[in-house]
Design a protein that fits this description.
Strand content: 15-25%
Number of domains: 3
Bound molecules: iron/sulfur cluster
Distance between the termini: 54 Å
Structural class: alpha+beta
Order of helices and strands: HHEEEHHEEHEEHE
Strand order of the largest sheet: 1-2-3
Number of strands: 8
């Protein structure tokens, strides 16, 4: 038996084998071989499952990413299939057309995978590290808040507003992460706050 044969393939082949063996006795061996050759191998055999969330909209459907290559052994993992997570309470395994095409999104040549910076006056973007990006964002936010924070209105009533910066968060997240994001952003005084689901 082919060691690559999956359980589904084995059961199918076994059924074919029983019929083929009987047929073979009558001279139908070639039919068995042709039928077995036409059965496609189960494509998810030897893949690793990773649970995740569809990044497109605020429904936040659960997905399972199937990859070949074990990163725990230092191998590169390559996603070969994505489907809805049947155990996820939101979507119960279903995906809309956008979610069903997630693999194309992951494999897209134009997908942004790391921070890019276009310096003032420059017409091109250059790659920077995550540390550089986070340091820069933190520095600019701190300077802007120090310069523009509104502690009180004209009547002297405390308002604690920071209106010169907006914050765009991701909708593909858990309730707990969204709660913490909201708390952090609002505690700085930021008024303009939204997520990509409405953009
Ligand atoms: S699968 Fe469709 S409905 Fe579900 S989160 Fe993705 S885009 Fe939204």
């Amino acid at each position: 038996m082919n060691v690559e044969l999956s359980r589904r393939g084995f059961l199918t082949a076994a059924g074919v084998g029983v019929a083929g063996t009987s047929l073979g006795a009558f001279g139908f061996g070639d039919l068995e071989v042709a039928h077995a050759a036409a059965i496609r191998p189960f494509k998810l055999v030897n893949t690793m499952e990773t649970r995740n969330t569809c990044p497109y909209c605020s429904v936040a459907c659960g997905v399972i990413l199937y990859s070949k290559g074990d990163i725990r052994k230092g191998e590169n993992a390559d996603i070969v299939h994505i489907e809805g997570d049947a155990d996820h309470p939101t979507n119960r395994g279903t995906l809309c057309p956008k979610g069903a095409a997630l693999k194309d999104f992951v494999k897209s040549e134009t997908r942004l995978k790391y921070p890019m910076l276009r310096k003032p006056g420059s017409g091109t973007f250059e790659r920077i590290s995550w540390d550089q990006a986070l340091d820069r964002v933190a520095r600019l936010m701190k300077d802007d808040r120090d310069a523009n924070f509104i502690a009180t209105n004209k009547a002297g009533v405390p308002v604690n507003r920071w209106t010169s910066v907006g914050f765009l968060a991701a909708s593909a997240t858990t309730n707990e992460t969204a709660y913490l994001t909201y708390k952090v952003v609002r505690s700085t005084g930021i008024v303009g706050f939204d997520n990509q689901a409405r953009v």
